[in-house]
Automatic annotation (TrEMBL):
Domain of life per record: Eukaryota
Name of protein: Niemann-Pick C1 protein
Keyword annotations of the record: Disulfide bond, Glycoprotein, Lipid metabolism, Lipid transport, Membrane, Signal, Transmembrane, Transmembrane helix, Transport
Organism encoding this protein: Trichinella pseudospiralis
Gene Ontology molecular function terms on file: cholesterol binding
Length: 1039
């Protein structure tokens, strides 16, 4: 992780560089227009952390050390000209310190050669320029062991020089942190808040920059010369390159991402905002629907009126005609249909209908004659299919339920999971103080008052810290072995640092209660407290040492940064101080192999139970674990079992009441049980359930896993269809009177021939429609459609076998006068059977009312209005699946979703993966991907950078991190020491943490072409780059 200790290294760089700015007091030679030195050599002890140069009031001295000369030529070409030995104000030791100092800073700016060159120019001129006295003035000195050193200076520079350096570097991105590199060097000021004045002020102010050894006052002037204390001085105005310029023939201008000047006209990212049409204040679709509805209503009324008038006229005309005709003469005429008038299609249809009715007539007779055989045939087929439940698999993973296996998103995720392992398992808590009032408090550091959000109250932070520690100590058990968070969490810097990666506001204090309670006093006055530290960290979360007197890191306990937009919520823009919620995010390792996740799932179960039972008077918690959604979907399905059973019981009662004909003959109440349908209704409902189970078992044999959603919904669907068929069959027999001496067999055969073709047609149509639904690529819809289609087919099959056999047996029982509950008891059968209550209501009241002409018009108007009102709002339907709809009403996840929408400021990360045979060692191929100098403007990185520029449209919040640009930086011989080194003796990798003597290790790559390594070097050292992981507090070279 390259960003972990950049701030510390920068501050150390500032230490060395400011130590090199040692200048002299005014002297007799100050009036020399050619200028002279203000220091020479180093006066601090060799083991001193802050090395300072010796005060020196003399002429520049020849630099004789060839290695030092080569370094000056490399870093400061403007100070060396020709083949002469340069006379400079620095010796070899100072040059070495300069080289080490700038090597820690240049990696920030290495993506932009002109920025690097300008930055070096500022320090080279102040360190070794032979005319230092013209633009620097000593303000303070101090006695050292080896002499007098300088401890305070004024550094004068032209406005255009300072602005030129700043402008060339201000937009250079640091890929490891996804922010401008200049933010790291501006005291916590971000992006446009960082100005030239703020930048220079931070570099030279010990109160803001904890690593600055003394005060450096940068003064900017527009004039070429200024009078300082009766002395003419000339502000530095050395050569500065724009970021759009190449510094020499071997470099290129900075990239578009680091230098907007070189960008061609950037086309705005396309907007996907849906434009709405309005007519006045009314939505266009609503207006059209309303207008159409009114028109249709008028047409319905007009047609009805006209039709009524025409009928009245026709009735009057017919009445007049009948009055004029002789008695005995009829005006009616009989219409005759000849065989030639019937079409071939109608003949085929009639023939097919007759054949189907004949087959089902025979089937009805067969069922009546051999009910047991038919019943056991149907049951056997069903039980064979049902036995497949032994192989049933239930899918609960939301990804597998809702994402089509062949979809682009799913295929890309599967590829990523297989190659890189799935993204981390996320355990997250959104903690909201019950006291949401802000409080006013001053930062003791500068005594400026702020309105702090409720999350920054110390007692609230204490409770978060205590809760976090309790979570870390939770213990699960897997295979009789304890599992704690430290056993499953992400540890980015392991094995050097084994702390878990936890993003939390208390991580700014390294999750340490002592750090949280610490206060710094000076002469009895409070100078810094927890608010001072928080304010510093919120401004610059990657600080290794804050700007308070604590000198405390802002990095988390695990060694990485805690970005405020991740750890806080409920703020506007970047006003983190007003935050209303604290976010605790724990990252847990995730694997593509489900068995490897068993430990994490076991710990998550303990975590969920712990948070559910956590009680507090000061805060409320919304939370989720990675397994939460699956658990809640499964819990909802288990709870739906009782709902399904209740529904089937209610439907059973309804069948019994509706199908039974409850008449009392001669005050004999036993007749109630002769014509009741209790057992038949119960068995009919059980057959419906059996058809559902048969469908599940059949597809289990086939190997198609089911979903809990299908198991929940299909029983209700098939119940509705199955009960309809039961009513059709039974009531057709009850209302169909026997013809002559027609026996039971013929009567059942006739009824079967009449109604079963209708049942066949409806069942076939429904099954066919659901099988069409199985063409959907969404697994949930596909599985549901398959199971529903087959269940409806099984329902029809069982009803014309098992149920029909049971029905014929029940008819024989009823005709023989035997009781349904106890068949041994027999009463005198009765042929007088009244219609059911519901049938009477429909026939006597509902049907006549519906057929009343005014009511017809009213019904048409009502349904037309309903239809067009639906059309008016159809565009309000949103695509996508709302996660809340898949959760139980009492689920804790509903609270989490609500809090997530209300408080979270960022979403999950997005990865862009290149697949296929891609030669990364080829410079041309590299230019299509990377984002540093020399890369194509429309490279992959460039296009994503453009998308991030329009984050409100593309939803990409920040520029992406490119491993390729990081690799280029890692290979370059920059840093102290460089990241990539080899042992000179055996050419094996020399770690950056290995402090070697000169000559023991050397840089991996010695030559570059246009800033790129040779193809063989690129491929050779790539494995070392991927495996390199060292302590964050030692180097920039983490990955």
């Amino acid at each position: 992780m390259n960003f972990l200790m950049k701030m510390m290294l920068f501050c150390r760089c500032g230490l060395f560089l400011t130590a090199l700015l040692v200048v002299r007091f005014q002297s007799a030679e100050a009036g020399n227009d050619d200028g002279h030195c203000v220091w020479y050599k180093v006066c601090s002890d060799k083991d001193a952390e802050f090395k300072k140069n010796c005060f020196y009031n003399g002429m520049p001295q020849p630099l004789l050390d060839q290695k030092a000369i080569n370094t000056v030529i490399s870093l400061c070409p403007d100070l060396v000209g020709g083949d002469e030995i340069p006379a400079l104000c620095c010796d070899a030791e100072q040059v070495e310190i300069l080289d080490k100092s700038v090597s820690t800073v240049l990696p920030y700016f290495s993506r932009c050669p002109s920025c690097s060159r300008n930055f070096l120019q500022m320090w080279c001129q102040s360190t070794c320029s032979p005319k230092q006295s013209l633009f620097m003035e000593v303000t303070d000195t101090v006695n050292e062991t080896r002499g007098i050193s300088v401890s305070g200076v004024h550094y004068l520079m032209k406005e255009e020089f300072a602005t030129g350096i700043f402008n060339s570097c201000r937009n250079v991105l640091d890929p490891s942190t996804n922010q401008r590199a200049m933010n790291i060097m501006c005291g916590g000021l971000m992006d446009d808040e960082c100005t030239v004045a703020e930048w220079l002020d931070f570099l030279g102010s010990p109160s803001k920059n904890p690593m600055a050894p003394f005060e450096i006052v940068f003064e900017r002037y527009k004039q070429d010369s200024v009078n300082i204390s009766s002395k003419i001085m000339y502000p530095l105005n050395a050569t500065v390159f724009s970021c759009a310029q190449a510094t020499d023939n071997n470099t290129t201008p900075c990239s578009c991402q680091d230098c907007p000047t070189v960008c061609s006209e950037m086309i705005p990212y396309p907007s996907y905002e849906k434009k709405r049409c309005f007519i006045g204040q009314m939505d266009c679709l609503v207006f059209v629907a309303l207008l159409t509805c009114c028109s249709v209503t008028v047409v319905i009324v007009c047609v009805t009126v006209v039709h009524h008038v025409l009928l009245e006229k026709e009735a009057v005309k017919s009445s007049s005609l009948n009055d004029k005709m002789p008695i005995g003469v009829s005006c009616g005429q009989q219409a005759l249909l000849n065989a030639d008038d019937v079409s071939s299609c109608a003949k085929i249809g009639a023939w097919l209908e007759n054949k189907i009715e004949d087959k089902f007539h025979r089937w009805g007779v067969l069922c009546t004659r051999h009910p047991c055989l038919v019943f056991f045939f149907g049951i056997t087929v069903s039980l064979i299919c049902t036995s497949g439940l032994c192989y049933m698999q239930v899918t609960t993973d939301p990804v597998q339920i809702w994402s089509a296996p062949g979809s682009r998103a799913r295929s890309e995720k599967d590829y990523f999971d297989k190659v890189f392992d799935p993204f981390y398992r996320i355990e997250q808590l959104i903690i909201v103080p019950k006291n949401q009032s802000q409080f006013v408090a001053a930062d003791p550091l500068d005594n400026v008052e702020f309105h702090w959000g409720p999350v920054f109250r110390k007692e609230f932070l204490h409770e978060i810290l205590q809760l976090q520690k309790q979570i870390e100590n939770l213990t699960a058990e897997v295979e009789n072995k304890p599992v704690m968070l430290k056993d499953i969490c992400v540890q980015p810097l392991a094995p050097e640092k084994t702390e878990c990666m936890i993003q939390s506001v208390v991580s700014y204090f390294q999750s340490n209660v002592t750090n949280l309670d610490d206060e710094y006093y000076e002469e009895g006055f409070l100078i810094s407290n927890w608010l001072s530290h928080l304010r510093s960290c919120l401004r610059n979360p990657i600080q290794v040492m804050d700007t308070t007197m604590f000198k405390m890191p802002c990095l988390g306990e695990y060694g990485g940064p805690i970005f405020p937009y991740v750890a806080l919520g409920g703020f506007e823009g970047s006003d983190y101080i007003s935050s209303k919620a604290a976010i605790v995010t724990i990252l847990v390792n995730n694997y593509d192999d489900p068995k490897a996740n068993e430990k994490a799932q076991a710990w998550e179960k303990i975590f969920i139970n712990f948070i559910k039972n956590y009680k507090s008077d000061n805060l409320s918690i919304s939370f989720k674990a990675e397994r939460s959604i699956e658990d809640e979907i499964e819990r909802e399905s288990r709870s739906d079992v009782s709902t399904i059973l209740i529904s089937y019981c209610v439907m059973f009662v309804y069948i019994v009441l509706a199908l039974g004909q409850y008449d009392i003959q001669g005050y004999n109440f036993l007749h109630l049980f002769v014509q009741s349908k209790i057992l038949l209704g119960l068995l009919g409902v059980m057959i419906v359930m059996l058809s559902v189970v048969s469908s599940l078992g059949f597809f289990a044999y086939v190997g198609i896993p089911t979903t809990l959603i299908s198991i929940e919904v299909v029983p209700f669907l098939v119940l509705a269809v199955g009960v309809d068929n039961i009513f059709i069959l039974v009531q057709a027999f009850q209302r169909g009177h026997g013809k002559g001496n027609e026996d039971v067999e013929e009567q059942i055969g006739r009824i079967t021939a009449e109604v079963v073709p209708t049942m066949l047609l409806s069942s076939f149509s429904e099954s066919f429609c659901f099988f069409l639904g199985a063409l959907s690529s969404m697994p949930a819809v596909k599985v549901f459609s398959l199971y529903a289609a087959l269940a409806i087919f099984f329902d029809f099959f069982l009803q014309i076998t098992c149920f029909l056999a049971l029905f014929t047996t029940d008819v024989r029982r009823q005709q023989s006068g035997r009781l349904e509950i106890c068949c041994c008891v027999r009463v005198e059968p009765s042929d007088d059977v009244s219609d059911g209550f519901l049938h009477s209501i429909i026939r006597q009241y509902y049907s006549p009312c519906l057929l009343w002409k005014p009511m017809r018009v009213i019904v048409l108007v009502i349904f037309s209005a309903w239809f067009f009102s639906s059309v008016a709002v159809i565009d309000k339907i949103e695509l996508g699946l709302d996660e809340k709809l898949s959760m139980p009403e009492d689920s804790y996840m509903l609270s989490y979703f609500k809090s997530m929408n209300q408080y979270l400021a960022v979403g999950p990360p997005v990865y862009f993966v290149l697949k296929g045979d891609f030669n990364y060692a080829d410079v041309g191929m590299q230019n299509q991907i990377c984002g540093s100098a020399g890369c194509n403007e429309n490279s992959l990185y460039g296009q994503l950078f453009r998308a991030a520029t329009y984050s409100n449209r593309s939803y990409i919040a920040a520029p992406v991190t490119s491993w390729l640009d990081d690799y280029f930086d890692w290979l370059r011989p920059l840093g102290s020491p460089p990241c990539c080194r080899l042992f000179s003796e055996n050419q094996t990798f020399c770690p950056a943490t290995f402090e070697s003597a000169e000559g023991i290790c050397h840089s991996c790559v010695s030559s570059y072409t246009s800033g790129r390594p040779a193809p063989d070097a690129f491929s050779t050292f790539l494995p070392l780059f991927l495996l390199n992981n060292i302590k964050a507090d030692k180097n920039l070279c983490n990955n």
